[in-house]
Specification:
heterodimer; A: alpha+beta; 2 domains; ten-stranded mixed sheet; 54% helix; 16% strand; B: Rossmann fold; six-stranded mixed sheet; 32% helix
Chain lengths: 385, 233
């Protein structure tokens, strides 16, 4: 502790340089924290424990190919199945193409049974009305809040994939554990089937709830085996696997994010190393004087290392602080464009990773110039200008 | 028989190497300095006076011979022991003062005491006493850039004596000062020698500065040329 003021004073030797280095570290850490947070949030959707007993069944060729609705009857008869619904991504927009959110045409009867974890609390009477009213819809609370919808509001949806523009009356609003699950709208599949001739008797996917999660692999195998030689063969997979496939449409985002993270960390390593090299070099004589005075090489190394680590830690803390502040903003801004991000969070382990990474940057960037400085003969250091 | 020398050099040699080329700077130099002595090392550039000073101060190693300073055979000490030895026994005064620019006068003087076990209060007493000795008690909070050259050198002297070393090594201590400040600094060193009994070894080109020493040692091409004792008490 008796050297603390020496370390702090040395750190503030060139205030502008120190401030700029801290800011560059903070911006980099902010970027790494946000990217890793995005990765964690997206991964959370592909590893959702609530989805462990749900299976998605779609056409083997692609999501764009349709399956016959009649498959639903056979699937429902399987002993492992608790409930099954036909479900079609509608892809409609509300008023403006920028008002993008998840909207599905579904068979309403078993909706809350299939998604009982996601559609957590809701008005029973509202949902009963929804089931009876073909022009009705149910929406999540977050979506309703975003557009100011209430029960009874008429929501005009403009189809972007299908040539219909349904006008839907909100009959129920539900609450979920996750914000992203509240950013969805469900309406009657019949409306789509009647409005779009090619959808008659067809659907994009079936969503199946299995009684026991242990039975999922067996059921998947049996469904796909059943329709293996059919004109429309199926591809069944867990909901998590389905989500993962969907996320892969964003590209190999994990590799992309890890690559950017590594590049950013390398860049801040270079920046900090350059700063520390400059700091140490311009103090060559001062270091020699300290050593002449009796400071051991290890002590001088320790002082310089402490300075570098403190510099990096300050940048890291500022970056983590900025990222934490920005998390809420990202939830609202990016969340409306990419629904998965409406639950964007910065997990504690991401923040810890960032702090550890910056401290490591501090250690790595300082060690070499500091070690070189203490290896330099004292008399040579005293002669340096 | 006189007191045991505080500095004993036996056949001290020092060479620098530029690739395979050996450049001898000191060649088998013998020297004894008694405790409380005030010696000036003089000679033309390249005669080896600063090299000898560095060897005696333990910040450089000889390539031959042996050195015993303040009771320690320096050849036998490893780098860490040598650092600890310097902290206890040697005070440095440099031509360019070499104060730490981000520390004020008080903190600069306190610096060597951070290596001791002294507590904050004891350190403060020592620092205040050292600054009083150089008449800078009123400049505690001033940073080096806020001091004149003479004041900076007096802070450096306070820093050198604050740990109560036996030996003060001064490398051209007046080289960057005007005549008036140079005279003040030399008077101060003389006082430290006479009143506190500090052994002083001074490298200088300045005959006026050397005149304050009681013995002048002239080096020429790495060997002792002559020794001149001042004809005064």
């Amino acid at each position: 502790m008796r050297f603390l003021h020496l370390i702090l004073r040395s750190l503030l030797r060139s205030r502008r340089r120190t401030l700029l280095t801290i800011l560059s570290l903070a911006v980099s850490v902010f970027l790494v924290a946000v990217l890793q947070g995005i990765l964690g949030t997206l991964d959370g959707f592909a590893h959702n424990p609530d989805a462990s007993s749900r299976v998605a069944v779609r056409h083997k060729t692609s999501l764009a190919n349709l399956l016959p609705l009649r498959y639903e009857d056979w699937i429902r008869q399987q002993p492992e199945v608790d409930a099954v619904i036909a479900m079609q991504w509608f892809g409609g927009v509300y008023q403006d193409p920028r008002n993008f959110f998840a909207n599905f045409a579904v068979e309403p009867e078993f909706l809350t049974r299939i998604f009982k974890e996601e559609i957590g609390t809701y008005s029973e009477s509202g949902f009963r009305t929804f089931v009876k009213d073909r022009n009705a819809c149910v929406v999540g609370q977050a979506l309703a809040d975003k557009y100011g919808w209430k029960v009874g509001t008429v929501v005009p949806l403009k189809g972007t994939i299908f040539p219909i523009n349904p006008r839907l009356t909100v009959r129920g609003i539900y609450h979920s554990k996750r914000n992203a699950d509240e950013m969805a709208l469900y309406f009657h599949y019949k409306l789509l089937e009647e409005g779009v001739p090619r959808m008659k008797g067809k659907v994009g996917a079936f969503w199946v709830r299995v009684r026991n999660p242990n039975d999922v692999p067996r059921l998947i195998e049996r469904i796909d085996h059943q329709y293996r030689d059919a004109l429309e063969p199926t591809l069944s997979e867990t909901e998590n696997a389905f989500q993962l496939e969907f996320l892969k449409m964003l590209g190999d985002y994990a590799t992309m994010i890890h690559t950017i993270t590594a590049a950013v960390l390398f860049a801040i390593l270079i920046v900090t190393a350059s700063t520390m090299a400059m700091t140490v070099r311009e103090r060559t004589t001062e270091i020699a004087v300290l050593r002449a005075m009796g400071f051991r090489g290890g002590q001088v190394l320790g002082l310089l290392m402490a300075e570098g680590v403190l510099l990096a830690a300050l940048g890291g803390l500022l970056g983590v602080g900025l990222a934490t502040l920005a998390a809420g903003f990202l939830r609202h801004s990016a969340g409306s464009l990419i629904p998965w991000l409406s639950d964007f969070t910065l997990p504690a382990d991401t923040l810890l990773f960032c702090l550890h990474a910056t401290v490591a940057v501090g250690v790595l960037s300082t060690f070499l110039p500091a070690y070189q400085a203490i290896r330099r003969p004292i008399v040579e250091g005293l002669r340096a200008l | 028989m006189g007191p045991r020398p505080i500095i004993t050099c036996r056949a001290v040699a020092k060479s620098y190497f530029r690739g395979a080329l050996e450049i001898p700077v000191l060649q088998g130099l013998d020297l004894e300095i008694p405790p409380g002595g005030y010696y000036a090392l003089m000679g033309p550039s390249g005669s080896g006076k600063t090299t000898l000073l560095n060897l005696i101060a333990g910040i450089d190693r000889p390539t031959g011979g042996s050195l015993e300073v303040c009771g320690y055979a320096l050849n036998d000490l490893d780098d860490d022991d040598l650092a600890a030895w310097r902290a206890r026994h040697v005070g440095f005064i440099f031509q360019n003062y070499n104060l730490v620019p981000v520390l004020n006068a008080y903190e600069n003087v306190e610096l060597p005491l951070l290596l001791t076990d002294l507590g904050r209060r004891a350190r403060r007493e020592r620092v205040m006493a050292a600054l009083a000795m150089v008449n800078l008690e009123d400049r505690l909070q001033n940073y080096p850039r806020q001091l004149s050259g003479g004041q900076e050198q007096r802070v450096a002297i306070a820093r050198a004596i604050v740990g109560d070393p036996d030996l003060l090594v001064c490398d051209e201590p007046t080289g960057a000062l005007d005549a008036k400040n140079a005279e003040e600094v030399m008077a101060l060193l003389e006082h430290l020698n006479r009143a506190l009994g500090k052994t002083i070894l001074l490298v200088t080109h300045d005959p006026k500065a050397a005149h304050h020493a009681r013995v002048q040692i002239h080096l020429e091409k790495g060997v002792l040329d002559r020794t001149v004792e001042a004809n005064r008490p």
